[in-house]
TrEMBL record:
It is found in: Lysosome. Its main location: other. Catalyzes the cleavage of thioester bonds from S-palmitoyl-CoA or S-palmitoyl-N-acetylcysteamine (unbranched structures) but does not have activity against palmitoylcysteine or palmitoylated proteins, branched structures or bulky head groups. Conversely, hydrolyzes both long and short chain fatty acyl-CoA substrate. The lineage of its organism: Eukaryota, Metazoa, Chordata, Craniata, Vertebrata. Transmembrane segments: none annotated. Keywords: Disulfide bond, Glycoprotein, Hydrolase, Lysosome, Signal. It holds the Pfam family Palm_thioest. Belongs to the palmitoyl-protein thioesterase family. The keyword Signal applies. This is Lysosomal thioesterase PPT2. SUPFAM superfamilies: alpha/beta-Hydrolases. It comes from Crocuta crocuta. The keyword Hydrolase applies. GO terms for cellular component: lysosome.
Length: 302
């Protein structure tokens, strides 16, 4: 035992205390593990909850334990129901989820569903939405010939669809609720029972309250891209739209922004608007593209 020669044995009292040292020393701080906020997903036209199985998988992988609710309402052809009817139905489904999440929730709303969600943010007085993620949604309206429109109105082209959409009968179809013909602006403003109202483009008694409600949102995340193939113009996903010459005016050039009619300008001023353009993604692939998820969605699901 040459290596131990000269060492002194600790006093007996110290030896008796050794088993209790862990109790006497201050405990190391526990890592912060705040639970992730619940996520609510609202589908688009002719969709169902099944379309979002990949998105659900991505969220479970990157944010394990997150409570994700993909609302299974107005599926398939039922998604053609008037949007105010859908707002009421989705609102009844969303309210109890919000009530159980005092820390707030996230909304991921795809295509037509993004307009449903924006209306929800306007009409719900006490919503607690942290991030509203608008996934390739025609937020300023739609003006383009798509397969959906050709199936629904086979004898009409975009140039004359206003004759149907701006009639009381046409406003019974969800697509017509956000049909926005830049060549017939007066008809749009007078006939639109949905988009012109939530945009604050037409006076109504709830305009001030709706604007206040919309501004409760913590963050507005806008996602879209030039290869979408359905949203026309694609900049509508970022609140851009055509003028009467079919030149796209960006969000900051739109009258609804300049007048701050429902709160866009205020949100941008406080740094609450995030724009995430992505090229190379078609309309039906936004909710299944992993790169898009990691770049534009996952960072905001705190």
């Amino acid at each position: 035992m040459l290596g131990l020669r000269g060492l002194r044995r600790p006093p007996a009292g110290i030896l008796l205390l050794l088993p209790f040292l862990p109790l006497l020393l201050p405990a190391a701080p526990a890592p912060h593990c705040a639970p992730y906020k619940p996520v609510i997903v609202v589908h688009g036209l002719f969709d169902s909850s099944y379309s979002f199985r990949h998105l659900l998988e991505y969220i479970n992988e990157t944010h394990p334990g997150t409570v994700v609710t993909v609302l299974d309402l107005f599926d398939g052809r039922e998604s053609l129901r008037p949007l105010w009817e859908q707002v009421q139905g989705f609102g009844e489904a969303v309210a109890p989820i919000m009530a159980k999440a005092p820390q707030g929730v996230h909304l991921i709303c795809y295509s037509q569903g993004g307009l449903v969600c924006r209306a929800l943010l306007s009409v719900m007085d006490e919503h607690n939405v942290d991030s509203f993620i608008s996934l390739s949604s025609p937020q300023m309206g739609q003006y383009g010939d798509t397969d959906y429109l050709k199936w629904l109105f086979p004898t009409s082209m975009r140039s004359n669809l206003y004759r149907i959409c701006y009639s009381p009968w046409g406003q019974e179809f969800s697509i017509c609720n956000y049909w926005h013909d830049p060549h017939h602006d007066d008809l749009y403003l007078n006939a639109s029972s949905f988009l012109a109202l939530i945009n604050g483009e037409r006076d109504h008694p709830n305009a001030t309250a709706w604007r206040k409600n919309f501004l409760r949102v913590g963050r507005l995340v806008l996602i879209g891209g030039p290869d979408d193939g359905v949203i026309t113009p694609w900049q509508s996903s970022f609140f851009g739209f055509y003028d009467a010459n079919e030149t796209v005016l960006e969000m900051e050039e739109q009258p609804v922004y300049l007048r701050d009619s429902f709160g866009l300008k205020t949100l941008l001023a406080r740094g609450a608007i995030v724009r995430c353009p992505m090229a190379g993604i078609s309309h039906t692939a936004w909710h299944s593209n992993r790169t898009l998820y990691e770049t534009c969605i996952e960072p905001w699901l705190s």
